[in-house]
TrEMBL record:
The keyword Lipid biosynthesis does not apply. Residues 35-269 form the AB hydrolase-1 domain. GO terms for cellular component: membrane. The keyword ATP-binding applies. One of its GO terms (molecular function) is helicase activity. This is DNA helicase RuvA. Keywords: ATP-binding, Helicase, Hydrolase, Nucleotide-binding. It comes from Pseudomonas monteilii SB3101. The lineage of its organism: Bacteria, Pseudomonadati, Pseudomonadota, Gammaproteobacteria, Pseudomonadales. Pfam families: Abhydrolase_1 (PF00561).
């Protein structure tokens, strides 16, 4: 199915923010009393949540967006870090008139969500950290995984991105049995974004976020009780031992391993399981 058929019924628009320029969002379920904001991973874009917005919009006001420097949002050439992106989230919420929202962040999105929740707890309902970055890496394997990911990103930075280099970057996200999901539409969408002149100027700045990973760890002890760590056993970065250690530091939190075959993108790979879990968690705070 096309991404645009998945998103049929969502409004795609651009929102002006005070300090971060114009931000592209996808929105559905306006009028529902509670809001979920979905945050994508590094070098990504809002289509990472194409499979989730419409199903969850029956019960929630749902928003996915491109970070500043990503997707089709403004791309000022500046230093980037998770704290800055957390401030962007706050400004976007202000621009949309949203005082408080549930957050679901994948990879960099979890990292940003964690910092935002720690800094502005009054603005966060429930928090889902989905294969999140920004947690301490406690194994040699986890450290090697991070170095491998940095090198993989550099293929699209140090050289002109190609179909093959973007395909490799996307396949890294996906369980080997789900590689059919990395189709021409998804590859060409991201390739076109990467080939924009303003994107080419920005990509080196974005990779620096990963290089300085340990300088911006989430303050786990400040996360809200009830935080959900949503993980997979085949996550290619931030391995199971690291997430177990991180979850143990958050009082009242829970850890859920996706049962379906998934790697780094469970919301895109195990769609029904993710959507069912998200609906239950954001309604009640319960996981099972």
């Amino acid at each position: 199915m096309s991404l645009w058929l998945d998103l049929l019924g969502a409004e795609i628009r651009f929102v002006d923010t005070k300090s971060f320029g114009t931000i592209r969002i996808a929105e559905a379920g306006k009028g529902n009393p509670e809001t979920i904001i979905f945050l994508h991973g590094i070098n990504g874009h809002l289509e990472a949540y194409a499979k989730n917005l419409i199903p969850l919009s029956k019960d929630f006001h749902v928003i996915a967006y491109d970070y500043v420097g990503h997707g089709l949002s403004s791309k000022p050439v500046r230093d980037y870090d998770p704290l800055m992106l957390a401030e962007q989230l706050g400004e976007l919420m202000d621009a949309l008139g949203i005082e408080k929202a549930h957050l679901s962040g994948e990879s960099l999105g979890g990292w940003v969500s964690g910092h935002f929740a720690a800094r502005y707890p009054q603005r966060v309902g429930r928090l889902m950290l989905n294969t999140s970055a920004g947690i301490p890496i406690v194994t040699e394997k986890g450290r090697a995984d991070l170095e491998h990911f940095i090198a993989l990103n550099r293929r699209n930075i140090d050289n002109t991105p190609t179909y093959e280099s973007v395909q490799a970057r996307l396949q890294w996200l996906i369980h080997p049995n789900n590689r059919h999901l990395v189709n021409d539409e998804l590859i060409n969408l991201r390739l076109r974004i990467y080939l924009q002149p303003e994107s080419r100027a920005m990509l080196p700045k974005l990779n620096e976020i990963l290089v300085h990973h340990d300088d911006y760890l989430i303050p786990l002890e400040k996360l809200p009780a009830g935080t959900l760590f949503l993980w997979t056993h085949d996550n290619p970065i931030h391995d199971t031992e690291s997430v177990k250690a991180a979850q143990a530091r958050v009082p009242g939190s829970s850890l859920y391993f996706v049962k379906g075959e998934s790697a780094h993108w469970p919301q895109y790979e195990s769609i029904d399981e993710f959507n069912t879990l998200a609906l239950r968690f954001f309604k009640s705070g319960q996981v099972e």
